[in-house]
Amino acid sequence: MKLFDRIRPAILNGLRELQANKIRSLLSMSGIILGVASLVAMVTVVQGMVGNFRQFVDAMGGIEKITVTREQLPKEQEHLAELSEGITMRDVERIRKTVSLVDNISPEARVGSERLIVEGRETSTYVTGVTADYLPVAKRWVDPGFGRFISDLDVLNMNDVIVLGSAVVPELFGANVDPVGKVIKIRGRRFTVIGILNNIEGSGMQIRSANSRSSGGSWRWRNSGALIPVSTAQAKFIGNDRLSGLGLRIGDAELLRDAVEQTERTILAGHKGLRDFAITTNEQVLEDFRKTEAAFKLSLGGVAGISLFVGGIGIMNVMLASINERIREIGVRKAVGARGSDLFLQFLSEAAVISVIGGLIGLVVSMGIVALMNYILMQALPTGAVATLDWLIMVQGLAFSVVVGLVAGVYPALRAASLDPIEALRHE
Amino acid sequence: MSALIAIRGLRKAYVMGDETVHALAGVDLDFQQGEFVAILGPSGSGKSTLMHILGFMDTPTEGSIVFDGQEVAKIEPDLRAWYRSNRVGFVFQSFNLLPRLTVLENVALPMLYRENSDPVANEAAATIALERVGMSHRLDHRPNQLSGGERQRVAIARAIVGSPSIIFADEPTGNLDVKNIDRILDLLGSLIKEGITVVLVTHDLAVAEKAHRVISMRAGLVQEDRTR
Ligand SMILES: Nc1ncnc2c1ncn2[C@@H]1O[C@H](COP(=O)(O)OP(=O)(O)OP(=O)(O)O)[C@@H](O)[C@H]1O
Ligand SMILES: [Mg+2]
Questions:
Q1: Which atom from ligand 1 is nearest to the alpha carbon of B42?
Q2: How many domains does chain A have?
Q3: When you count CB atoms within 10 A of the terminal residue's CB, does the N or C end of chain B come out lower?
Q4: Domain spanning B1-87+166-174+196-203+210-228: which superfamily?
Q5: Whether the predicted model's global pTM rises above the 0.90 cut
Q6: Residues A26-47: pLDDT tens digits?
Q7: Same domain, yes or no: A222 and A109
Q8: Residue A217 C-alpha from the chain's centroid
Q9: Which residues of chain A have a pLDDT value below 50?
Q10: pLDDT at position A38, please?
């Protein structure tokens, strides 16, 4: 409380000095303004990109997803190609029995791009055979009122049923038609539409994108395609019991490596040691992204750090100039009873006032920069990094500038404090 | 009655390369409460040096100063600052008012550096001090809007705002015309009635005439000490 009583007049005095030397003060603030603006803007934009990427990875199935795909045998096993059975439902059974870390297994049998025909209309889309486990693994669902998904019974009975991606529906049926119950022909076979997958853009996923043009390009594939029971796909289109791959979902992302290892050993054992499969995760993508993010933060942090450093020098410079001009004032204040610490506080407060005001202006500038960066990123990135200013970052930016101002003010303030009153008064 | 200030063997030496300047070469003096003292002497005789040391702005090289019963010749800077804001007032030839502050703020300045400083009380004290010097009609003016005589009255108000025991005035009338000199001297003279000791340095014999005691200095020593 007592300290505040001493600081309050010092702050008022600092404001008065600022007012008396507006242009000089503004110039001395320019470094701080740019430093805070770039710091806040950069952190915000990088955070926005990180957030967007997280959503992107999520849309890819998240990091709890393991993908098993068919793969060519490696060179040293090529002569054993005859023995390779590929990935089958037997692998699904084995994994289900032995790898307890895996919660859901989604076998997938790609039929390929097929013509879907209804009376008078047709469209081409990817058809894939799946089971009921597709939903939890792909993190998809069927919204209420849009039918149902493929069931275990559909798979067991090899039913000719089909679930459509939301983008396929208007192409086949036009707008405002409920397709559930309608019949679609694929290669002459009649499939009954039983449901529609959730629409990703319209859902709570909030993959924000630059504009409708680029969003159509990069995300429509998530809403296109058609799903049929895996057994139907194998028996009626593919003609064998092979799968194109498996999607596995584990409960705990921390145990991803263990799950991958156990899955690999299980499949390898079932395949008699043949490496005719590959296991991938989104971890590598995330890892790469983390590296990019770190590099971004480092270089942008460097830029902000340098401008704050320059800002600090600017403040120190103006404080020293100001003290030189006000040596007589310092002498007078000492002559009427000011201690060294009083003058130290006065000039330190002045530096703090400069840096706080500079920091506040910097925050305003950072808003402009973020808006500009958003605009540019929207043009450049398919996912569109939309960054929003976070008050916490702004507070941190301001705190940063105050620290810089205080550090820069210490030396000038010490000089003012140590001036001899007689000599100061003699100064012209 | 014991003296307000008792000085014994006071020396101040400035070493300039090989040469040593003895600004004060052994001064013995006593100042009583309520005295009006003028110090005369040629330029360079050590008048200002003595005032600065007695005003707690400088320290002697040697000697003893007993102020109100306390030995203060070699005290810490912060304690000297305390004496400056609580026990002594200083008036300069060149006024030394702060140009950015108003008259009221200038006068309240010494109060700012006291412990338990309170803005409202400071302002009240400054207002009273300005009334005493007849400047209460200029509270919100800046120093550069005042005449020289008015500025010196404001400076005196600043010196008395904290009710000091003693006021040191180093050629307070040096920059003023005759009419203003009289006014300032009357003002300083009136302080004595309140028990404040006034010590002023002057080159002007007419000014010294007003004092009750005239001390003449030469080459850092007291040459003559005359009480009328
Ligand atoms: N900081 C200093 N360094 C060196 N010498 C000094 C310093 N201050 C004062 N002196 C010397 O000490 C002597 C006394 O100076 P002082 O200012 O006390 O004289 P004065 O009597 O006040 O003179 P004036 O009437 O001209 O004001 C002078 O010779 C001066 O040159
Ligand atoms: Mg002098």
A1: 25
A2: 2
A3: N
A4: P-loop containing nucleotide triphosphate hydrolases (3.40.50.300)
A5: no
A6: 888 888 898 888 888 888 878 7
A7: yes
A8: 20
A9: 1, 202-218
A10: 85
Look at the alpha carbons of A106, A109, A112, A118 in this order and tell me if their dihedral is positive or negative. Answer: negative
Taking contacts as CB-CB distances below 8 angstroms, the residues of chain A near B90 are 335-336
Summarised one tens digit per residue, pLDDT across range B41-54 is 999 999 999 999 99
Q: In this predicted structure, what is the pLDDT of residue A299?
A: 83
The residues pairing with B200 across neighbouring beta strands, listed in sequence order, are B38, B169
Q: Are residues A212 and A102 in the same domain?
A: yes
Boundaries of every domain in chain B:
1-87+166-174+196-203+210-228
The encoded tokens of residue A188 equal: 């002459």
**Tokens 């990088």 found at:** A46
Regarding whether A222 and A365 lie in a shared domain, the answer is no
Query: In angstroms, rounded to a whole number, what is the distance separating the alpha carbons of residues A154 and A231?
Result: 9
Contact of B106 with B98, CB cutoff 8 Å: yes
Distance, in Å, from the CA atom of B182 to the CA atom of B206, rounded to the nearest integer, reads 10
Query: How many Cα neighbours within 13 Å face the side chain of B31?
Result: 31
Residue whose Cα lies nearest atom 20 of ligand 1: it is: B44
Residues A212 and A297 in one domain: no
Task: Give residue A209's pLDDT.
Answer: 37
Q: Measured between beta carbons, which residues in chain A are less than 8 angstroms from residue B82?
A: 337
pLDDT score of A383 = 55
In this predicted structure, what is the pLDDT of residue A57? 74
| Identity at B176, one-letter amino acid code | L
Q: Provide ipTM, 2 decimals.
A: 0.95
Task: Indicate the residue of A6, A337, A340 with minimum beta-carbon distance to B84.
Answer: A337
Query: Greatest CA span in chain A, whole angstroms?
Result: 107
From A257, A281, A305, the end of a domain falls on A281
